Amino acid sequence: MPRINSPAELEELRKEILSRRDPHRRCISLCSGSACHAARSREVAVAIQEELKKQGLEGDVELRRTGCHGFCERGPIIVIHPEGICYLKVQPEDVPEIISETVKQNKLLERLLYEEPGTGLKIVHESDIPFYKNQQRVVLGSNGSIDPKSLEDYLALGGYSALAKVLFQMSPDEVVEEVKRSNLRGRGGGGFPTGRKWEESRKAPGDTKYVIVNADEGDPGAYMDRSLLEGNPHSVLEGLVIGGYAVGAHQGFIYVRQEYPLAVENVGHAIETAVEKGLLGKNILGSGFDFEVKVHRGAGAFVSGESSALMTALEGKVGEPRPKYIHTAIKGVWDRPSVLNNVETWANVPLIINKGADWFCEFGTDTSKGTKIFSLVGKITNTGLVEVPMGTTLRQIIYNIGGGIPGGKGFKAVQTGGPSGGCLPESLLDMQVGFDELSQAGSMMGSGGMIVMDEDTCMVDVARYFLEFLTDESCGKCVPCREGVRQMLKVLTRITCGEGKEGDIQLLEELAEVAKEASLCALGRTAPNPFLSTLQYFREEYEAHVREKRCPALSCKNLISYYIDPEKCKACMNCLRKCPAGAVTGGKKVVHVIDQEKCTKCGTCFEVCPSRFSAVKKISGQPVPVGVQQGGRTRG
């Protein structure tokens, strides 16, 4: 493929690529994101290539290794085109039969199809699976159909047409205005209007400016940005170049987490290819506009996801936040105007340019436009990446797409916005998901993490867990965060250990207020959110821990006990054999007993007791019932 020197040459090349592609040709798309790699996707790819060769189909059937399809729990996933047959949890040993039966003879392998819970109905096509059917995959849609290392695949879908449009048909001010009209808000945290940020930087004095991709995705359970960068790196690059043109920058950075090697590999390949073909570097598409991109690998610090800390790290210093008396859009990297947006935000830009701000505004609420990608994890039937229009309710995401809570358990809460977000109760399930709606409810959008919790979750311990994470990740630069959040963690730990006392809740509220008001950066200012939101909606759990020394969820180890109900014990000896502390006594036909002094409360006995017996019980806040300590009775 020669260098592309004009929009006309770009369109000619696109036509030539499409002319060589037969839409009816058999193609096997294999999910090759990081999650599927962990589930043997590479081995599946090798098996497919070998089997195609073995069965004489090497030149007739294409194998396309794509990015993440989103339904990560069911990977590796393959989709056989043009029929759209979707197989889940494919393993190398399944491949010979897939090729011989499905590819050659159009016979379905029912064991690999999606099975609808409850009905047992087998679903053949990916688009009909409820997890996909109830989404609006605008940004993620291409992930399952293109090879991230193939520029041709991206061009075949219209790639870089938005870049050609802005370079030859729009002025920088017109580009900024179009992004402003779209009401695109930053997908990485605070939801600041993207167009306003771009305008501020464009008007800032100085000849040297920067545009930056924030791919330092550190929220536990979140991997939206990683999957986009792995699966469709050219979309992010195209958005970045458009942003550079709009604000007057000729240098871009992609700041990627050290833990994302595949994303680094794929975006590095995309940069090299784009430079070689004239879509990046000097005189892009013959327009006279120069733009280069460098990849910077982060050192693993969560705080470096904060804008000023990230920019400090780009300068080669320790990633610590700094006071933002002046916006980083005016004074950022090396004190020069710098526009920072996250991966998903940049990937939206080419779509807005190509389809228009009015199209983008068709999705969403009054103040939150477009779609949003969420990482749906936790106590949920279907885990994975979910893209829905802003304004979709939590209930629709959790039940229609996520399939609800597994194991017949009840829903308790959903945590949104990462470790600094908030936990929302069942009463808010019908709330629309948007930047302002979540903030008003005591949570936040953040980058899009969504952790579902069931009835067995202790909300006091949830707050403790996230405060522990944030304490570890604090850079320590300011006292309210370094010491205030640490003291909150100490009090929460004491409460979950059964050592809470009157006044602890009030003390936590005071510490939270100071951290919110006086911390240097967003990490410290939002760190109290897990505590404040759980207190707001689950105050009775805090009071039970402090006043009754009881954990209502039967979760906090120091506040629970295990005992064996003699009326239900069948002396099967499962718990006796598996107890690591030797705390269970009994024998064949002899009712078992737990020695409370030896018991370490590991829960093994509870887990191994057959469900048909359910003899092992878990209690909290009360002594073991009288009589159950006496063993020795035999079972007839």
Structure explained in plain terms:
- With 636 residues, this protein is α/β, with parallel strands linked by helices.
- It contains 24 helices and 19 strands.
- The strands form 6 sheets. It has a 5-stranded mixed sheet with strand order 12-11-15-13-14.
- Helix 7 runs parallel beside helix 11 (233-247), helix 18 packs across helix 22 and helix 20 (504-518) packs antiparallel against helix 22 (529-547).
- The longest helix has 19 residues, at 529-547.
- It starts with 6 loop residues before the first helix and ends in a 16-residue tail after the last strand.
- Fourth CATH level, the homologous superfamily of the largest domain: NADH-ubiquinone oxidoreductase 51kDa subunit
Mean of residue pLDDT values: 93
The percent range for strand residues is: 5-15%
Helix content: 25-40%
| Spatial order of strands in the largest sheet | 12-11-15-13-14
Individual helix count: 24
For the termini, the CA-CA separation is: 83 Å
Number of domains in the coordinates? 5
